[in-house]
TrEMBL record:
PANTHER family: BLR6218 PROTEIN, OXIDOREDUCTASE WITH IRON-SULFUR SUBUNIT. The keyword Transmembrane helix does not apply. One of its GO terms (molecular function) is metal ion binding. Keywords: 2Fe-2S, Iron, Iron-sulfur, Metal-binding, Oxidoreductase. InterPro entries: 2Fe-2S-bd, 2Fe-2S-bd_dom_sf, 2Fe-2S_ferredoxin-like_sf, 2Fe-2S_ferredoxin-type, 2Fe2S_fd_BS, Beta-grasp_dom_sf, Diverse_Oxidoreductases. This is (2Fe-2S)-binding protein. Residues 1-74 form the 2Fe-2S ferredoxin-type domain. It comes from the Bacteria. SUPFAM superfamilies: 2Fe-2S ferredoxin-like (SSF54292), CO dehydrogenase ISP C-domain like (SSF47741).
Length: 154
């Protein structure tokens, strides 16, 4: 089957029931999405499918019809995505395990709501668990990314 990931088309020979997470990690060596719980509850495996935040651990690869974007494809070292820049500037990561999923969730959220309230940020990000408890820094990074987006829109 063909899978479009980060703007590149890949041919993979896997069972259609294989979780997208394992196709990405084991077949394509794209390791940004992490295995956390395997049940779509923690958010560490979050990727975008056509811009929609999706839990790759519970999404069968055979059901993926759109373009997949992982944290590796969200930005690049020369031009990080606004959310990635905010994460660095606000030193969000401690252990870093959940961060790719957090970033992907925040990017999709801000694409649909570029000027959220703190309550909206907390609700949108509540499905992503952080073992280190950096939730205040996550909220501030999302706020900063929102401000950057608002400034870019002017």
């Amino acid at each position: 089957m063909q899978l479009n990931v980060n703007g590149q088309t890949h041919e993979i020979d896997v069972e259609p029931e294989m979780p997208l997470l394992w196709a990405l990690r084991d077949e394509l060596n794209i390791t940004g999405p992490k295995y956390g719980c395997g049940m779509g509850l923690c958010g560490a495996c979050t990727v975008h499918i056509d811009g929609v935040a999706t839990r790759s651990c519970t999404t069968p690869v055979g059901q993926v019809k759109g373009a997949v974007t992982t944290v590796e494809g969200l930005g690049n070292p020369a031009a990080l995505h606004v959310v990635q820049r905010a994460w660095v500037e606000h030193q969000v990561a401690q252990c870093g395990y959940c961060q790719s999923g957090q970033i992907m969730t925040a990017a999709a959220f801000l694409a649909g709501n570029p000027t959220p309230t703190d309550a909206e940020i907390d609700t949108a990000m509540s499905g992503n668990l952080c073992r280190c408890g950096t939730y205040p820094r996550i909220r501030e990074a999302v706020r900063a990314a929102s401000r950057s987006l608002a400034g870019a829109a002017k």
